[in-house]
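At this stage, I put together one protein's amino acid sequence and its backbone structure tokens, which the following lines show:
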Amino acid sequence: MSVTIEDKESFTVIGKLGKGLSSEGYKWIPAIWQEAKSNFAEIRELVKKDSEGNLVGIWGAMSDISERFERWTERGKYLASCEVSDNSVAPTGWTKWVIPPYKYAVIGCSQDTYQEKFNYMLSEYLPNNGYSIVGAVHEFYNPKETNGNLYLYFPIEKNL
């Protein structure tokens, strides 16, 4: 399985926020994405775009309940979001997060292989390579890829 290591500076996202039991994320997260997609026009002018006018990034950002960007415990928070300029202001009903800088171990997956790849990273790749998770895992959806695949970003080192 192909894993890359990526240093990522702090970045800002605005999205729709949800929280719930970690074990039931599959039940409550899809509704958050539906709400974000249905109301995207409200943040359209804030999203970062590349030179071709494409969205830079769509994120399923995650945090612990206290929003310190720690790993989920029994409960967690999830932000169905788009990357925006750092000085953006979230409209009413939207939430802004500034994700801290980290070094990430990144692996691609599909919805069908999500759990398999997640488990592989936790039980094999990270420990076998001397890494441990130092924060919440994030999902990245590349807007240029229309195949429905995503990338899991496992924070392995805090950047200063």
